[in-house]
Amino acid sequence: MNRREAAIDLGVRAAFMALVYLAFALQLPNYYTVHGIAALLDGAVLIGTVSIGVGITMLAGEFDLSVGSLAAVTGVVVIKMVGIGIIPSLIVGVLFAAAIGALQGLIIGVLGINSLVFTIGSLIGLRGVALILSHENSVTIPIDQLSDTDFFTTPLLGVFSPLSAGMVIVFVVAGLFLRFTRWGREIYAIGGGRTEAKAAGVPLLRPMIIAFTCSGALAGLGGAVLSLRLGSATPLGFDTLLLSAATTCLMGGIALEGGRGSVVGIAIGLFTLRFLVTGVASLGAPYYVQNLAAGGLLIVVVVVQLLATRHRQRRARMTLALQPG
Amino acid sequence: MQSDGAVLRMRGISKRYGSVTALQGVDFSLAAGEVMALLGENGAGKSTLVKILAGLERADAGTIEIGGVLRRLRSPSQSLHAGVAYVTQELSIVAPLSVAENICLGSDRHALWSRRRLDRVVRRHLDLVGLGDIDSATPAGDLSVAQQQLVEIARLLSRNARILILDEPTAALSDAEIEKVKAVVRTLAAEGRSIIYVTHRLGEVFEIADRVTIFRNGHSFAPMEVKSLDVDRLIEHLLGRRLEQMFPERGSISGPVVLALRDVTAPGLREPVSFDLHKGEILGLAGQLGSGAAAVVRAIAGVTPRLGGTIALHGRPLDARSVRNAIAAGIAYCSDDRKRDGIFAVRNLFENFTSPALPRITVGGVLSRGREVKLASDLAAFFEVARDRLGSHAGKLSGGNQQKVALGKWLGIEPSLLLVEEPTRGVDVGARAEIYRHMRGLANQGLAVVFVSSDNQEVLGLADTVATFFRGRLVRITAAEHLKPEELLRDVTHPEAVAAGGPA
Amino acid sequence: MLRTSIRSFGLPLRGLAMAAALLSPLMFGHSAARAESKGLLVVFMPPGTDNYLAQWQKGARAKAKDLGYDIKIIESSRDQAEQDSQVQQEIASGEKVSGYIWWPYVNAAGTGSLRALSKTGVPVVFTNQYPIPGTEKFWTAYAGVNDFLNAETAAKALVKACAESKTVKCNKGLIITFPAGYSAGSDREKAFRKAAPNLTVIQSQPSGFMAQEGYKTASQIIPAHKSEITWVYTENDSLADGVIQALKENGLQPGKDVLVVGGVCHGDTTNLLNGSLIGTGVQAAFLEGWSSVQSTYKYLNTKKVLDGAVYLPDDPNKPPSDDGAPHRYNFIPNPWVTNAKADVDSFKLWGYPFKELCNY
Amino acid sequence: MTSFRPIADVAGAGSGGEFDPRVATRRRRVATAIVIAALVVLAGIGGAFTPTFLTFDNLLVVIRQASITGVIALGMSYVTISGNLFALSAEELAILTACIFGWLMRAKFGLALSLIATLLFAGLGGAVQGGIIALGADPIITTLAFGGFFRGLASVVSQNQNILLGTDAAQWLGTGRPLGVPTQSWAFLILTPLAWIVLQKTRIGRVLVLAGANRAAARSAGLRVGQAALLGLTLLGLCCGLAGISAAAQFGQAVANLFQGLNFDVVAAVLVGGIALRGGQGSPIQAALGAAFIALLQNFMLLNDFSSGWRMTVVGSLVALATCLFHILQRRRE
Predict the structure, then answer these.
(1) Across D27-34, average pLDDT
(2) Which residue range forms the structural domain that includes residue C53?
(3) % of chain D with per-residue pLDDT over 70
(4) Helices (H), B214-354
(5) Does A24 touch chain C (CB under 8 A)?
(6) ipTM of the complex, rounded to two decimals
(7) 3+ Cβ–Cβ pairs closer than 8 Å linking B and C
(8) C-alpha separations of D103 from B125, B326, D143, D259, D263 in Å
C-alpha cells in the first residue's frame, strides 16, 4: 500500500464514520448539541486512551491482551491510595501500570516470545491480582469525596472537558511521537519488518519496551481516571475493554501484522464505534443489537478490506514483473 | 595497536550451532582503506564471521579488536557504535517506512525525525548511490528490489563507519546497478574505510578487492594479494579442484517436442516469446534480473497469468491458470527462493519429499506410512541425501541439501517438465556440482528441463540450448556448444552490439 | 494510475452502502411508538443477555404500558464505565424525562453516575442492588429485591427443614455464591451466615449464575467432602440445579442425605417439584421490574416519599395499589413456597401463578 | 505421452521398510513429555497435600472438568497448527449452538433432527469464518467480528430467556455415564486420539500441517491451502457445537450467558500444552494435555480453598511461565 492508497483508505474509513454519525444524528438530537457531543467525547475517553496503547503495540507487530485486566488492577490500586490525593494517586497508578507494561515488554523483547501468547497469561493473572488486592470486593472512595473528581467532566472549552481534552492531548502526543521521533518510527520499523529492522541496527528491545510501557501506562491511565471519576473500582471491571479497544484499532485500519496504520486511523475507528454503540443504546435498543451491529460492521470491514487487498494483489500480480528493466 | 595498520583484528573466533561447527579458531584482520574479499563455499563460515562482527551472532570464543581496542559486540547497535556497518545478504529494508527513515534507521544521531530534516540528512547519500531523483519520503516498499539494495548502501554510507561489510550485495542486482555498487565500494575505500566484501562471484574479486581471504570448513586461510592470483588459482584454492569437473557430460537429444511456446506474452515480457523444448533437453534461460527470463517460466508454471499466445505440452494446449493446474499437467516448478516457498523448514524430510505427491501416498484419504517412507527414501537415495537425515527438519539442512529437497520433491508427481529458477542460488560450490549432475541425470532419463539463471557459467555448462533475454525480450536461442562466453555476456548485458546475429 | 486506484477503492464504497442499508432498519424502528403518553421513563441497566434481567424488562414494560408511560431501557455492556457514559449521553440529550430507574452494573462504582442523574432534578428510583449507605441524597426511592431478606428467608427455611428432617442432622455444609466481586453475592452470603449461626460452613465458593457453573464448582468440591456435607446453600435455584446434579453423581440423595436450598426461583422447577430442593422463594424478576415502574409512578403522582421501608404485601391475587406515595424502600415480597406440588400449583402472587413468575 | 518415473511404484511398499519416521522424530516430543511430567508432579504434590485428590472419583471429576475446554481445545489446536493463530469466537459459537439446540428441541423437532441440524449449523458457523480466512483475511479479526455477531444471534434465538427443552430426550447427552464415565469425558477421550489420527494419518490432515508450516511452500506444492483454514475452523465449529449441545442437554435448558470466559480457557489449554503459535507444529494431544493440566491445577486449588483471585493469578502465571519455557526450548533446538 503506497502513500496515496493509504490516504484513500483513511478517507474511506472517515467517510464510513461520517455515515454512521449521520445515520444516528437523524434520529438523535444529542448527536449535534454541544452537551451531546461533549458527552460523546467523554464517553470515548476510556476506550480512546486504551486504544492508543493497544494500537501502538499492534503497530509494533505485537498485541497486548492484558489491558483490561491491567486497567482493573490500576483502578483498584488508585482507589485504595486515594488518601494521598487524587492527582498523586493517579500518578502512582499510571506509573505502576507503566512499570508492569515495561516488565512485559522486557520479557517479550528479551525472550522474543509472541506477545499474543504471553499476554494471555497476564490477562488471566492480573485479573487475579485485582481480585486479591481488592479482597474480591468493590473498593470505594468515601461518598463525601465523590465531588472531588467532578472537575474531570466539567466543561472546559466548548465541548471539551478536562477528561476529553486530556484524551485529545494523548492522541496528539502519541501521533507526534509515532510520526516524528526516532523512537516512534522504530516502533513502526519493528512492526513492518522485525528482522529487517534488527539488521538495520535497531535495538529491538527499546521499541518493544516503549510500546508495552505505552499500552500499560495508557491502560492504567484509562482505568485510573475512570475509577476515580466513578469513585470506586471493582476487580471485575473493564472486562469488555480489550475487545472494544481491539475493534477500535482494527476499524481504524491498524494492521494486525504490524507497521501500518496511524493515530488518525485509531481516532476514526474510535468514533465509528462510539457513534454506533452510543447510538444503539440511546435509541433504547437492546444490548444484543449492539453486538449484532458491531460484529456485523466489523465483518463488513473485514470482507471489504479482504476484497480490496485481493484486488490490489491481482493487479500487483499482473504488473509484478513489469518493473523498469 | 599494531604497526601494520590493522583496523580490525579477530582472533580465535569459534562458533557452534548445535552439533555443527561453523567457525573453528578463525583469525582475521583487516587493514585501513583496503577491500577484503571473503570467499568460500556456503557453510564455510564466512557469513557467520561477518554476522559475529555485525553483532547479529555471538561468538563462543575469541576476541575482537577494533582500532586496537577490545570490543564486545553483542548487538547490531553495539557494532555500529564500534564503527562496523553491515549490508546483509537478505534485505533489511522496512517496507512501510520511507526511504529516508530507512536510511536513518538504527542510527541514533537524530531523535526528531521530521520529513524535511531527514531529507536533508540523506540527500547526499542518495545522490551518491544514484537514487538522487527519488522522493525520500516514498515508502521503501514501493521501490524495486535493486533500488532497495541501493537504499541499504546509502544507509551504510550515512553511518560513517570505519569498517563496512557487504554480504553478497550484488546477488539480486542488474549489471548497471552492480557497476554502481562497485563504484561506491571503490569510493569508500579511497576515503580510507575498510571494506569486507563477501561474494560468490569470482569476477568481482578481481575487479575491486585488494586482498582475499578464503574460508573452508570453518577455517580461514591467510589472506592473499589479489594481484598475485588468477581465476584458476583462486578456484583451486577455493575448491581444491578444477572447474571442468563441475559440469556433467551432455547427452544427445532426439526426443519429441514436450513443450512448445508460440507468441507467448506475460507480465514482464515486452515481446512475444516462442520456442520448442524436447524430451531430455535442458534449456537455459539466461538473463539478469528483469530480463524476462523468469517471466517465461512463471507464465508456464501458472504463477503469473499468460496474457497471450499458446503453450502446448505434449502437443496439447496448456491453460495453467494456477500453480495447481500446472502441477496437474505434470509441470514442476521451483522458485528462486526455496526458504520462502520451496521447503517446509519445520517439518521433516519425509513430509517435505512427499508434499506435492500426497495422492500417491494416500489410500482412500489415509496416508500410508509404508508408501511415504518408500517414496521419500527413494527420492533421498536418488538425490544422495543421507538417509539418516530424513527425520530431521528441512530447516536444519545445508543450503545444498535444502535445494535437493526443493528439487527432489517434484519427482514424486512424475513430471514431464521441470522448471527451475536459479538452481544453485545460495548453494556452495561442492553441492552445485551435485545439483548439476542430478539435473543432467533427470534429463538423461527423459525429463525436459528449463532453468533460469543469471550465472553465465552455469548456463554455458549445464544447458543444451540457451535462450538469452534482455529487458523483457528474447534475444536469441542457440545451442550451448556454439555459444561463446563473451557472446552470452553481451547478449544478457547489451545485445544491441550483436543485434544482427540473432533471430529475435 | 489515479483512476485505477479509485476503481480499487470502489469496493469499500460499495461496502459502505451495504452497511448503511444494514443500519437503516435499526434507525427507523423506534420513534414511531411515541404517541400521546404521560411521560418517558428511562431505565439504565446491565445487559438483558441474562434471563433475569430480560424478565425484569418484561415486567417494567408491562407496568409502564399499563400506566400510560413510555419506557426506554438503556442496556450497558458488562462495564460500569460504559453505563456511566450512557448516563452522560442521556443527560446531555436534553430529552424530557419523567423518571429514571437506576440499576448499576457494579453498585459501588455506579455512585458517581447516580449522583449525576440526581443533579438533573428528575426523580431516580433505585432498583435491584441495595443502595449503598451514604448515597441516600442521590435517589428518591428504592424498589426491588432485598438480598438480605432473601438470604435470611432461605436460611430460615433451611433451618426449619433441618429440624423437620428425619434423615439429616444438619451441621456442616457448603455455600455456593455468585462470582467473586459481585455485591449481591456477598450481601446474600453475609445475611445467610447471620441468619443461620448454628450451621457450620466447610467451604464458601464463588461460582456464577448458571446451573453449568454451579455444577462445575460443586462437582469438584463435593467428592472431597462427601461424607460430611449435610446442607448446601446456593444463591439462586439455577446454581442449586447444578449442585443437585453433582450431589446425585456422588451418590448423595438431595432432600434425603443433603438439604439444598437456593432461595430464588430461577430457571427450571423440576428439582423443586421432585423434592430435591427444600423449597424456593419467589423473588420474581417480572415483579421487580413491575414494582420499580410502579414506585416511580407513585412518586410522580404524589411528589412525596414516605420514610422507612415497606414490604409490599404478598397478596396472591391483587397487585399492590398504584395509589399513594411510595416509601423510601419498597421491597418486593419473597414468599416461601415449599416443594409440595399442591403448594406450587396453587401459588399465586399479585395475580400471577408460580409458573409465570419463575419459569424464564 | 510419456511421464518421467525415476521412482519405482510405491503402491506395493511394505510397512515402512528399514526407516521408521517415528524414531527420527521422537526427540521432538519434548513439549508433550514436559506437560506429562508436570501432570505427574502436580498429581504427586496434590496427592501428598490433599488426601482426596488422588482418588478415582476425583480424577474422574478432573477429566469431566477438562472435557468441555478440552474438546474445544482439540478444535482450536487445528486452527493453531494450520497457522491461523486462534479463533476468538469459540465461546460465542458454543453459546449460539446451545441456544439453537434448545430452540429446536423446544420446537419439538425431535432429538435426532435437532442434533443433526445443530451440528450442521455449528460446522457451517465455523466454515463461514474458515472460508473468509482461507481467502486471506486475518483470523483474529475475522473471528472477533463473528464472535460479536454470534453473541447477538444467541440473544435473538433465545430472546434472552432460559430456553427450556421441555423434554428429557436429550438429557442423557449431558448427564449420562456409560461405564461410570460422563458422556463429556467420553467425547473428550475418544475425540483426542481421533483428532490426532486425522491430523497425522490423513491426507487432509497433512495438508493442514504443511499449510501451517509454510503457506507459500504448500501453495507452490499444489496443495489447497485454503482447505487448512476451512478444515480447522469447521472442526472447531463442530467441537463448539458438541459443547453447546452438551451444556443444553445437561440441565435441559439453554441461555445466552453460558460459557463465560471459555475462549481464553481454551487458548490457555493450547498454550500450556506447548503448541507453537507459528503453526505447522504440535499435536491435538498437547492441547488435550494442556486442558487436563489446567483442570487438575484448578481442582487442586479449589480443594485447598484458594480464593478465586489466587486461582486466577496462579493459572495466569502458569500460562505465562509455560509459554516462556516452551519458547526457550524451541529456540534452543533451532
Answers:
(1) 74
(2) 32-145+284-333
(3) 91
(4) 231-239, 293-301, 323-328, 338-341, 349-354
(5) yes
(6) 0.85
(7) no
(8) 71, 49, 24, 18, 24
